[in-house]
Amino acid sequence: MNFQYFHSALYVRFKAKLQLQRVKTLDIEIVHEVVEADIIIDAIFGAGLSRELNEATRKIIVQLETLNGFKIACDVPTGIDIDGNPLPMAFIADVTITMGAYKEALYSDMAKAVVEEVICVDLGVSYNKYTTGFDTDLYLLE
Known about the structure:
alpha/beta; Rossmann fold; two-stranded parallel sheet; about 20% strand; globular
């Protein structure tokens, strides 16, 4: 990908003042509607969502799903709760890039309808720092 000609746009729907200030310093175009793009990144929520999506968020997901671009979810697709259940719907990503460790929610029976490929990326912290001392009866077969 040639980043010299890469165009980025950011859709900010929620009150994220600090993040919005940071974006403004980077000279990134801020759009006020969902627009067609080559890559759509879902980073609205991450792991640990424990409440149903509000109407505004559901509306955004519906709009994003109509776009043709390659869809990436960060950590866990928006709308998947900590147990892997859509609340009541979820962003359907071509790939989910999860941070640090695989999340159980990504592999539930309900989530498999919206979670396709999962890639786990390093956080730059020793894996043992946040996995040692936890017992589990869950194993990922590759």
